[in-house]
Amino acid sequence: MSRLVGRRALFAVPVLAAVTFGVFAIAAASPFDPVKAYAGTAGLTASQENLDELRANLGVDQPLVARWWDWLTSAVRGDFGDSSTLRQPVAEAIGERAGWSVLLAATAFAVAILLGTALGVLAARRRGGPVDRAVSSLAYTLEAAPPFWLGLLAVWLFALKLGVLPAGGLTDTGSDTVTAGQVARHLILPAAVLAISQLPWFALYVRQGVGDALDEDPVRGARARGLAERTVLVGHALRSGMLPVLTLIGSRVPELITGALLVETVFSWPGIAAATVEAATAVDFPLLAALTVLATAAVLAGSLLADLLYGLADPRVGFDG
Question: Are residues 301 and 315 part of one domain?
Answer without folding.
Answer: yes
